[in-house]
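cache lookup: miss for this entity combination. No prior model stored, computing from scratch. Input as submitted by user K.M.:
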Amino acid sequence: MARSLPFHRSLLGRGMLLGVLPAALVVLAVVGLNSARAWVSVSGSLEDDIRRAAELLVREIDARNDRNLALARLVAATQESGQFGRRDEALRMLGRLVRETPGVYGASIAYEPDADGRDAELGRMFAYVRRDPGAPGGVRVERLESGLGSGDADMWYWMPRERFERTRLREALITRPYAYQGVDIVEHVAPIVVDGRFAGVAGVDVALTELQGELEAIAGRLGAEILVETRGVFVAAVGSAGRHADLRAKRVAETDLGPLFAEAAARGDGSWEAEDAASGASYFCVTASVPAGGWRVIVRKPMSAVTDGIAATVWSNLATAVVGISIIVGLLAAGVVAIARRIRAAHLLAERIAGGDLASAPVSVRGGDETAELVSAMNRMNADLARIVTSVREASARLGATSTQLGATSREQRTSVGALGESTAQIAAAIHEIAATGNELLRTVEAVDGGARRTQTAAAAGRSRLEGVSETMVRLDAGARAIDDRLEVIAEKAAAISSVVVAISKVAEQTNLLSVNAAIEAEKAGESGLGFLVVAREIRRLADQTAGASLDIERIVGQMQSSVRQGVAEMERFSGDMRKGTEDVHAAASDLGGMIGAIESSYSRFTEVRSGMSTQSAGVAQIETAVAQVAEGARSSAAAAGELARVADEVAYAVAVLQDAAARFRLRDEEAT
Amino acid sequence: MHVLLTRVGGRRFAIDCADAVEVLPVVSHRPAGTGPAWLLGLIQARGELMPLVDLSVIVDGTATQTLRAARIVVLRLDGDLFAGLATKVGLLVPELEGPCERDFAAPGAHPGFSFAGASHLGPTIADADGMVQLLRCRRLIEGDAALRELPLAAREDS
């Protein structure tokens, strides 16, 4: 029975540890990396959106403020350019401006006391025209209630006057927000300058409720808060579900948003993350300043609004990953369990076979993978083993019978080989006698053969001597030729000597002539030439002797040449004689050769007789040897028969062992035992 | 006196060494054409051209056989020879011996004969080998009136 294994060593456990666990870790890592990347990119893009929105907002507010400042300058300019003092015209123009310019709530013109010299008649010019849907023409003209003091509500008047007197610039300004008759406004004001003196102020109002309404729409779209401030006072504060609705025209430092603006003023334009002082929530803030009017805008959005979307994505990824991994684990476990079952079946079968039980039924398998093939191979092996064991049993039974027969036969054989040995010894004795007789006959024939051989040897010697004579003659002929050649050489040398002698005679003659001439010259010299004359004479004498000697040599050489010629003729004759003699000797040798051939043929016949005799003798010896071999064979056969009997015993023993071993296996038709 | 000895037609003659300039072996000559028999032609000896005269014709009337022993003796002849043109003459002799000492002024010497056609033959003496007659070389040609004629062509400028 299969032992139960610990989980981490079982197939399923290994599949989990080596396959599923690494796969799960890899999937988790991928999901984590993707989430981090999504977090960074999404939060970056959201922050960019808020930055762009803040930028647009600032531009919009800047454009509005610019326009309103320009309107205030325009009103002041109309006063300065001829309308100053014409109060009715000025009021009509203001009325038209307020009526026809959207976004403008009211407009005003105020003069310095008695600036146009008509205060005694009409009172000081301090007129305000404001939008009033209930009044005829949509506008109402009233006398301004403030402007004469130095507080916030009178800022619209003293601020431009002070600025002009300090800088002499006709610059338009925006006041702090303030409430005028219950309406929160900011006023755009410009100084009216007549003849270089400050003569009054022209102003254009904007109601903050209108601005606030527009900003609300934008804040709703962004999901963010928009806070606008100037000179420490809120211009507008929207978003955050109306939490800031009552902050308009309030002082910033007095609210809980004071620290935020302080930080924005310290940082300048840009973005940062800050905690809200009231709620403690974290916000993403963007701030920018509006050039016209020096307003500061802050747009802020809670960080939770940024991160919530990303977190949802990450969680959904993670859930998908977990589900996927679970499915993989399930499939793998199912597959591994099936494989483990098949392998266990194969294991059981193998253990049964090892125990000698070949009777078990084949294990049934489904599916077609390698483990299924393994099980079916084990089945086949079981069946094959059963067949082999059956065959072995049958074969060993047959082998036992055969080995018994073999033992009996080998014993019979040993008996008959003994009888054969005796007969062979008798035959050997008879043959030995025949061999002795044959050898005697052979010796007689060999004696006769010896005589014939001597005759043949003598004849061969005669012929070889004749050949020797022939060779000697040939050598003599060659010698005669050599002498002939030498003689020719001598003749050539003699000719060379003759030519030398001629040269010597010529020299002697020249010398003679020279001595004669010398003597003549000496004679002419008289007494002083006498000595030389003697020398010349001596030379002449020597020359004459030389000539004589050379003549002698010439003669001797001539005789020598004639002797050589004679010698050559003699040698030629001798050579002719030699050639004839050689031919005679050849003829004699050929006659003797014929005779020797006859002797050799008779000798060869003797040789045939002798070789026939010796062949016969050798045949008898061979027969003797063969009989001896037969005897030896008989002896060794007896030994072999003994060996055979021993081997047969061993075979019988081995068969018994084999049958024992085969009996260990239990076959299907023997299950009863 | 020192003389050179020669033999012509079995007679021995002597030539005074004082007349001889040198002795040459036989050289080939340029024939003179159909002139007198004794004038063989011109030879060249040491760069000089000179007539060749055959002694055998003069003293014996037969031409010299130019064998190996024959020689040419160059003579210096002062005088009115060949219209004064030649000072050296080659004399072809059949054989030559000497120089040797012979005294033709000895008391036993024969002074020779004096008649026309023999003026070139001088005194004769006897020595161990027989008679020897001195040849007067200047007279060899002068002696014969015919020889004094002009065997040479007239000079173009004369």
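stored under new cache key. The two ends of chain A are 23 Å apart (CA to CA).
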